[in-house]
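Quick one:
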Amino acid sequence: MAEIIYLNGQLVPRSKAKLSPFDHGFLYGYGLFETMRAYNGYIFRLDSHLTRLHCSAESIGLTHSLLTTDEGKQSLKAACVATMEANELRNARIRLTVSAGEGDMTPDPGTCSSPTILITAQNLAPLTPEKYETGFKAAVSFLRRNSQSPLSRLKSTCYMENILARTAARAAGCDEAIFLNEQGYLAEGSSTNIFLMSNGELITPCFESGVLPGITRDAVLKIARTSNIKATERWVQLNELIEAQEAFVTNSILELMPLVSVEGRPIGTGKPGKLTGDLLFSYRKLVDETLR
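Output:
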């Protein structure tokens, strides 16, 4: 558990951290967050996470200079590193949360004078190699991702749908929930992007499907294309996932996790596929090369 946190420009003990009861992130979910992974003291793709945060902040009207300028980006970058180091962590899960800040009781962001910036870090114990050898099972959520909503492309603190979907999936004995969009097309997992392999082609749902532009998703697409693997972003039917030769899900903490079944139906052989293993190896190699 993080003992030192960063809150609005200062590193403070967790026991002394205070947030306003009128913070619009708490009252109305008007906020954004980024979850990052540190390897041996290095926060992987930190610049990419902060770039996504800045773009998202502009899109929802959080225009404070700390969130929308290069100087602000550098300040947040230093704050993330400082939070990790203050907790004496090397391999860590780091969360940067930004809200509109303190305002009136009514849902009016115009009453918020400055954003709340909160950074927490805790030790990360990765899932075991055995879990990557068995893979994830997934259930299709009863909830639908709205591809027409700008929230589908933001890592927003409005996270209730994701929590409800994952809770239901775990109650059904699964590891992850899968969202379809309002048109019935494959979107994403409750905290992951989805990839499948079919007829020698790597396929992932396009952003227009209602998909978060994942940092790991982007890295995997670049690795695949550099390796001369045909990689396509498009609208995807659920049956394509179920009938795929193999599949996997991605996020910054999991990296690439094999997906072996959906709704109790095996994907491919029901075991992690070769391409998934090759891409995971290449991703970890990329991490290692970045650390040098």
